[in-house]
Amino acid sequence: MKPRHKKLAFIVAGITVLGIASMLVLNAFQSNLVFFFSPSQVVANEAPIGKSFRIGGLVAEGSVKREDGSTTVHFAVTDTAETIPVVYTGILPDLFREGKGVVAQGKISNAGVFEADEVLAKHDENYMPPEAAEALERAAKAQKASLTQ
Known about the structure:
Order of helices and strands: HEHEEEEEEH
Shape: elongated
Number of strands: 7
């Protein structure tokens, strides 16, 4: 092989390896990508079916119910316009309370219940995840608009 052909083969092999590595990284990134939806968006069927996503809002007052002898907890997440029932098995964060901000990650079951794999609670009095705060604000505006019409 001539030196010119060796150099060309080396360049082609390098580009091929770089392309394959890029595809693997992008595929891993896409499979770990989790989107956020408000309860109103879930009710409007904007959330993916059969895929994991995050839902956020406030824990509805009076909705927390614990199963006896189990770590399973049933509660509802609301954006003040719509409410989604959630079931979670595991230990809840210490700051998890009714009326406080929460983000849960999981999937919607065929029964319409959000089956959470992970539950995150706000960490102080002033913090709420930006997505959840925006969803609550949109729901409040929509509710006001529907009342004035």
